[in-house]
Amino acid sequence: MKKIERVNCVLKGEVPDQPPMGFWLHFPKDTISKGVEAQVAAHLEFKEKTQTDILKIMNENEMRSNHKIEQLHEWKNIPKLSRDSKLITDQADILQRIVEANQENCYLLGTVHGVIASLSHASGHSYSVSPPLINDHYQRNPKAVMEGLKIIEENTQYVLEMTMNSGVQGIYYAALGGEKDKFSDTFIQELLRPTECGLLKQVEKREEISTFLHICKEETVLENYRDYPCDVVNWAMHESSYSFSEARQIFGNKVYLGGFDDRSGVLVDGNEQEIQEKLNDIYQEFKGSRYIIGADCTLPTDIPLTKLSDIHDYLKQ
């Protein structure tokens, strides 16, 4: 069975020849700084060395700003993108080159950053600073923050549209902001959820493209994402207060991606035997569900790729 067929099999609720796997990481900064060709080459090398079933195409073309927003009126000045913006065209180039080189081998995911991640990037602040700023400004003047988020929504629309038209099989939507005590319930219910659900409903209309919902960060309130249109759910299982059975009660008969911790634990620090034993534990935990073997989030950039190719070999047994 081809890798792309294996993933499609799970998405359709059928039984594959073996469980599919999907792992990813951020490539070194010097690779990213070299531009499109270097990033494409890094993805293809990762694909060959790991034998992953799913190749997530990273998106380092972020909506970052060097200007730090401090005043309410500044949200409306967030830069607006167009279909011809370099951020869009560079990512389109990366996607299209990888799609062509892949020759329908791996299942390809195109990364789309959620609106909170991009709003944080555009604020000029780190994520340790931006949520309190957004909350404060939203409480003082909701319309001011809404103007900024509307720009980000439109920018994200361009990224999403370009990614869906690139030839990938799925969208990896990296949602942020639903963590415990990060944003107010009012902000989430009135602004964040409607905006993101509206974007994801556009993917839902494209029957040939699936949505992988990645719920980023630890201590997420999974109920915040209950109604998000998606086919696959992935979150920080190892830093979560939810058991897998509790998460299933929220998301139901979705496909679940994960099993391994991303920055510590067996995959990062363990030996071959420990990784095999962990795989057996994952089989038992996911038993009765549709699943894809993966990690909570991105793996360390310097992790030996042989660890991932070993998992591929274990899954064949």
Question: Can you offer a commentary on this structure?
Answer:
Helix content is 46%, strand content 13%. It has 317 residues and is α/β, with parallel strands linked by helices. It has a single domain, classed as Alpha-Beta Barrel (TIM Barrel). Strand 6, helix 9 and strand 7 form a beta-alpha-beta unit. The longest helix has 23 residues. It is globular and about 60 Å long. The two termini are 14 Å apart. The mean pLDDT is 96. It comes from Candidatus Enterococcus ferrettii.
TL;DR of this structure?
With 317 residues, the protein is an alpha/beta fold. It is built from 12 helices and 8 strands.
Task: Lay out the secondary structure.
Layout: H1 3-11, E1 21-22, H2 29-33, H3 36-50, E2 54-57, H4 86-102, E3 107-113, H5 115-123, H6 130-140, H7 142-164, E4 170-175, H8 185-204, E5 210-215, E6 232-235, H9 244-251, E7 255-260, H10 266-269, H11 272-286, E8 290-295, H12 306-316
Parallel strand pairs: 1-8, 2-3, 3-4, 4-5, 5-6, 6-7, 7-8
